[in-house]
Structure formats: structure tokens, C-alpha cells
Fold:
Amino acid sequence: MERYDVIIIGGGPAGLTAGMYVARARLKVLLLEAAVPGGNAALTDRIENYPGFPFGISGPDLMDQFRIQAERFDLQIKMSQVTGLEVTTAGKKVVTPEGAYLAPVVIIASGVRRQELGVPGEAELAGRGVSYCATCDGPFFEERKVAVIGGGDSAIEEALYLSTLASTVYVIHRRDQLRANRTTQEKALANPKLQFKFNRVVERIMGEGKLNSLLLKDTVTGEKEELPVDGVFVSIGMKPAADFISGLTLRNGYIVTDEEMKTGVPGILAAGDIRYKTVRQVATAVGDGAIAGLTATRLLEESR
Ligand code: NAP
Structure:
């Protein structure tokens, strides 16, 4: 089993920041990432509220800069899905399909993934018109009609991005007010390609082999409507990516930590969106990652 000083699980803003801090302390550190480095931020078309980029920056470009900076300090990144984390007498054992790794300190920065709607037709038509990532799948829907479900920052940002490709973007929201921040809301409400369907929920996603339409229900009148669309982007919030975690204190599925990012288990830290907290932004993930990196470094120095 390969041994490291620190293993980081997850390569989003928190994991890459923690990795940069630990690598800069000249410790042997491995970051394991299941998909592409950058996490959800790398799937965001534009990021306008990360300081230092007054005119905004594309999510993939920003996260590329994070990765390049961390790798400059010799952070080792491997693409691998973590399936288990065990506390053993030899250290923390991080299990992946390709093998296991050992380290005295582990930082969990596995983040969040998209929540499914849970309506009939959704699972059957996933990848056949039903998507959870506009920047990934949006280009398939050029000059087509699409719908975005949700009223938060992610949904409205995705609707704005899709408006650059699709002919019409329906925004289907269960209330009569959006949750997204004011600036994004103003842009969306002024965009002629966006059509808002407030007070509506999706009851069923319909199509044979490929998406044809959505069955919507008006939450005020109870009236039902069939809305023909070629694509639907579900953006109704996130759930913790914590399938491999056991033995830690969780609240609503998220890991509880103290201000130093320590969980209740010595040597296991958590940082970023996977933590139980109220604000989930790239900026707050970076703060968590820096603290976790410094805590990890201090724990190792104290044990020597
Ligand atoms: P979110 O803020 O939790 O919004 C989820 C949206 O989906 C809400 O409008 C919610 O409706 C709706 N919803 C939830 N469950 C639903 C269901 N079963 N059926 C229909 N609609 C449902 O999630 P998010 O937009 O993914 O954002 C997650 C976090 O990341 C937030 O803290 C957000 O601020 C942050 N974020 C920030 C930025 C940015 O700052 N640029 C960008 C993206 C994300 P209600 O409004 O009725 O609850």
C-alpha cells in the first residue's frame, strides 16, 4: 500500500486549496478525484463572484488555475473514485478500485452532487433529454426548446447559459419567487429567451426512448399542462457526496467539523461543501481548504 503524509479526497476548490497548502509545506500529499479536477465549479459557465477576477472568469479556466498552482508545488493528483475510508492501526486507509492508500491524515473534500427530482420518467430518460449539467449537455440542444427546474443560483445561471444555445428556455419553479441572488435574477428576468413558469411542479417526465414533454401541475389552481421540450435540466439543489463515509458525525448527511476543520475522528478533516454549514461558495470552500491544509500540516508536525 502506498503511504502518504496526507490524502485529500476530492479535487474541487476546497481539495485543491488544501492540496496546495500541504504540498507547499513539503509534505507528501495525494489528491484523489473521481471525475475532473475542479468539481462543480468546473461545470459552471461563468463565475462572477470569486474575488480577483473583476470581469468574471469561466469555471473551467478558474479551476485550471487552481490545479496548475497546486501542481507547481508538487501536489500529486490521481483520477480515482474513493469507495471506502477506514481507520486502521497503520493509519487511515483510503480504498479505491485501483488499490488502497495509507496516510496519518485525510482531508475529505468530496463536495456535493446534484439532487434528482424523483418523478416518473426521470431515471428512464436520464441522458436521453434529462440532464443535471447545462455546461456539459447544453450544446446538444442548440435551437431547441429546453426547461430548467429550480429557482436557485445554479438553476438560473444554467438557464442564462442555455439561453445562448437554445431557442426557448422555460424556467419551472415551484414558488412565485426565485431564490437566486438579485444580480442573477435581474439578468434572467430581462432575458427574452427565458419564459418563467412559476408555481409549477413537474409531475412526470414523458417520452419513449427520448424526452418529449413534461407534465406540469400548477400548485395554486391544481391545473395540469403538458409542455413539449427537447431537454430538461434538473437543478433543484445538491446532496452530499458521502457514500464512502462511515463513523463520522453527520447532520443532514453533511460532515460536522470544528473551526479547524477537524471531525470527531483524530486525523480526519473535512473541508468545503461536504461540511455541515450554511454558505456554499467557491470563496468559502477555498477558506475551508486553506484551514484544513494548515491543520493537517500542524497535526503532522505535532506527531513528529
Ligand atoms: P438551492 O440554492 O438549494 O436551490 C434549489 C432550488 O430548487 C430552489 O429554488 C428550490 O425551491 C428548488 N427545489 C428544491 N427541491 C425541489 C423539488 N423537489 N422540486 C422543485 N423544486 C425544488 O441549490 P443550488 O441553486 O444548487 O445552489 C446550491 C448552493 O450553491 C447555494 O448555497 C447557492 O447559493 C450556491 N451557488 C452559488 C452560486 C453563485 O454564487 N454564483 C452559483 C451556484 C450555486 P425553493 O426556492 O422553493 O426552496
